[in-house]
Amino acid sequence: MDMVELRGKEDLESLAKNKWGIPEPAKDRVGVDAGVLDFVLVPGVAFDRNGNRCGHGKGYYDRFLETNPKVFKCAVCLDEQVVENVPTDEFDKTPDIVIAAQGIVFQSKTTNSDN
Hints:
Helices cover 11% and strands 22% of the residues. The protein has 115 residues and is of the alpha/beta class. The chain has 2 domains: 32 residues, no CATH class; 68 residues, NagB/RpiA/CoA transferase-like (Rossmann fold, 3-Layer(aba) Sandwich), CATH 3.40.50. It is globular, with a radius of gyration of 15 Å.
């Protein structure tokens, strides 16, 4: 998975949508050096209060985050996406923070301002 630079709303809206309706850049669009990223918004289907995340099942973000461990991982979700328990395996990467309408659902100890 490559990250690409978007320079505004028009740039985002110009992306073609895949079969699931998700905007994607053209295959020939050059990605940015992931080493310059310091923040990634991480998608998910469900999250729990331990920071566990259920993605969309392909592992794209987990593999990206494995090779870029220093990037800050933020997940934003609806209250309805917060569940009691999300099963995980050794490949799943935990966001640094999970934020829902109800507030902060999970915050890793390394991002907690009290430490």
